[in-house]
Amino acid sequence: MSYRITLSNTSANTSADTPESFEAQPGEPLLEAAERAGFPLAHDCRFGGCGACRVKLIEGSVEYDEFPFGLTEEEAEAGYALACQACAQSDLTISAKLLPAGHIPADFHVATIERLEKLSHDVTHLVLRIPSASEVVFHPGQYLNVMLDDGSPRSFSMASPHRGELFDFHIRRVPGGHFTGRLETHYQAGDTLDVELPLGNFRHDAESPRDLLMVGGGTGLAPLKSIIESLLDEPNRPSITLYWGVRRAEDLYLDEQLNDWARTLPDFRYVPVLSDPDPEWGGRRGFVHEAVCQDFDDLSSFDAYLCGPPPMIAAAKTSFAQRGLDVERIYADSFNFTHELEGSVA
C-alpha cells in the first residue's frame, strides 16, 4: 500500500507536464518520496534540526519516529510538518516550498587556509581561499561543509558575502570537537581542506517589504552578519534590529564593530544580551528571545531571522508566534554542536 501526496501552492514553477502528486510508501519520509518522484522540495540538514523542509498539511496526517526538534509543538498544532522526518499516515495534500529556479547544486572544491586569527577565547576567524569557487553564487546566509579525512562533514556558515576567492567564517571551539579544537593546534595558513558548497536555504527574502528582526546566539551571528553586510549598499534596505545573545561579555567577539554600525548606519539597532553576566554588566540580561519579547508586544510587521542552538530557536519561534509573527515569516538556521562530537555535522 502507498499514499498519494498532492502538492498545492508550491513556491517554484514546475513544467506543465510535471504531475502535481507523488507516491509515498508507509514509513518513508516525505522528502525522500518527493525526491524519488523528481520533486525538489526545499530542505537542508535532513535530520529534523533546521526546519527548512517545513510543509503545511492541508489534508491528511503524518507521524514521526521521534518528534523533530526543528518543529515546535505550536507549529505542529497549526498543521506544519517537517518533510525530512514526517511519514504519511494517509493520503495527503500539502503546501510546500520547492528549491528555487536556478538552484545551484553543491560541488566539491579544494580550499587553502588564508588566515587563522583569534576573535575571542573560543572563537576563531577562519579565512579560506577557494579559487575554483570564485564565480559560484553563494547567497549570504548559506554555509559550506569542511570534509574530514573520514568523509564526515563539518558545517560552517559564511560570516560575510564572499569576495572573489575569499570566504570567511567564525568558528567556535567545541570542547572535545574533532575539527574545531584542531584549528588551534593542528592547522595553519597554507594548509588545504576539502570543502563542499554552496549549501543551505537560509537567506534574505528580498521580495518581502517587512523590517528585519535578527536574533543570533553565539556564532549564530555569522550568517546574520553576512546578510546584513549584503544589504549595506542597498538604497532601499529594510530597517534591521539585531539581538545577539551570549553568556558573558568576553563572548561578544564583534561587539565593537556592531556598536559602530549602530552609531553610523541609519535604521540599524543592536542589542547584546548576556545570559550569565558579571555583576558589573550594565546591559540586557537573560535569554535573548526574552529580551525581544520585552521590547515588542507585536511582531507582526517583521520578518525574523534566527540562528543559534536548537533550544534558542524553539523558544524564539514559540514566543514570537505568540506576538503575532507569522510562522511563515520566521527563517531559522539551527546549530547542533553535539554532532561535532558524534562525528557528523558540526
Structural features, described:
By secondary structure, this protein is α/β, with parallel strands linked by helices. It has 3 domains: 3-95, Roll (Ubiquitin-like (UB roll)); 107-201, Elongation Factor Tu (Ef-tu), domain 3 (Beta Barrel); 211-335, Nucleotide-binding domain of ferredoxin-NADP reductase (FNR) module (Rossmann fold, 3-Layer(aba) Sandwich). The protein is built from 8 helices and 19 strands. The strands form 4 sheets. The chain has a 6-stranded antiparallel sheet, with no helix packed on it. It has a 6-stranded parallel sheet with strand order 17-16-15-14-18-19, with helices on both faces. The protein has a 5-stranded mixed sheet with strand order 2-1-7-3-5. Strand 10 (143-147) and strand 11 (153-157) form a beta hairpin. The longest helix is centred in the last third of the chain and has 13 residues, at 310-322. Residues 11-19 and 337-346 have low confidence and may be disordered.
